[in-house]
Amino acid sequence: MMTKNWSTAILGAVAATSTVVVGLASEVQAQTLVRQWSVENAVSDSYHNANHNHAFWLKGFMGGNNFDIDGPSTFKLFDNGTANLSGSIVSQNQPQYQFTFDIDFVADSWNPKRELKNSAYSIIDTDTWDFFSFDGPVSLAGAGALAGYSLDLTQRGAPNYGFQVGEGANGKNINEGISGWFRWELKDSQQQVVASNVGDINADIEAVPEPVSTVLISGLVLGGGTALKRKFARK
Length: 235
Description:
This protein is an alpha+beta fold and 235 residues long.
């Protein structure tokens, strides 16, 4: 489970080892990987009112709305409050329709969007969720039969259409996950819009175990720690 408490634990480890890494200031990167997760479809459980199984949902997309994760996909969190979601998806009904994605996010403040049954929120604490917005333009590259096409995404607005990450945040089950809401435009190779509608991301994420490296600790000590604290702050 990803909560605000894990960042405190990392910063505690940093304080204990600061004398070891203080001499590495000149080598610190502007952005250091803090944690990463593998990404899979979010499948409805007993706390959800439907029977869903997808990672991306593209309303009205030709051949079907539902897209599955196809191959290794990751969600990464960096010490400066940014994040990245990357990988590939394939249409459930038309497997020749594929996209690759590489989406950057920045920490932001949003209201949680609760999509599970009320009983789920006796288990889930939405105060532990973290919220993000797109960091710049987002465009998925078409593959397979869609090679040369692009799927441009625009984040939907207030009050609760941010991207949310945490336990139960995918809106389909109580697993750790991510969800978010957007508008999409499918463009051909001439950048002409051939279709458009709204869509969602609903995915499970599972932590990839990694030891805290010397590089990570030095990055947090020498400036990254401040950004990490700011990333978890609520406006």
